[in-house]
Every structure is written in structure tokens, then in C-alpha cells.
Amino acid sequence: MAVDEVLDEAVDAAVLAGLLALLEARTAPDPSTAAELCLSAVPHVALAVTLASVDLD
User: Fold this and answer.
1) How far is C-alpha 50 from the chain's CA centre?
2) CA terminus-to-terminus distance, the chain
3) Residue 10, Cα to own-chain centre: how many angstroms?
4) Domain count of the fold of the chain
5) Cα–Cα distance measured from residue 42 to residue 44, given in angstroms and rounded to the nearest whole number
6) Does residue 57 form part of some domain?
7) Which of 6, 28, 47, 51, CA to CA, is 20 to 30 A from 13?
8) Residue-level pLDDT at 24
């Protein structure tokens, strides 16, 4: 695997982790728990953006 392919896989994994956290927030029993779960998705999405913007040149 090339470096760019590894980065693409890492971006996919980070996005998926963030989306899973948001999916869990949809079924939260109360708004406070939902908000907490939404906030837990932020680091995953931030990591995905960082990895996607890496310049390999």
C-alpha cells in the first residue's frame, strides 16, 4: 500500500468512528446524553479533516 492509500483508509476510519458516535446520539435517552455523544464525535471528524488535508508533496 502506498502512503496516500493508508491516509485514505485512516480518513475513512475516522469518519466512520465519528458517524457511529452521531448515530448513537440519535438514540440517546435524553438531550444531555445526546449532546455528550455529539461532542464525542468531534475529535474523530477533526482527525479525518486533518488527515484528508495532509500534503504529501
Assistant:
1) 11
2) 17
3) 10
4) 1
5) 5
6) no
7) 28
8) 94
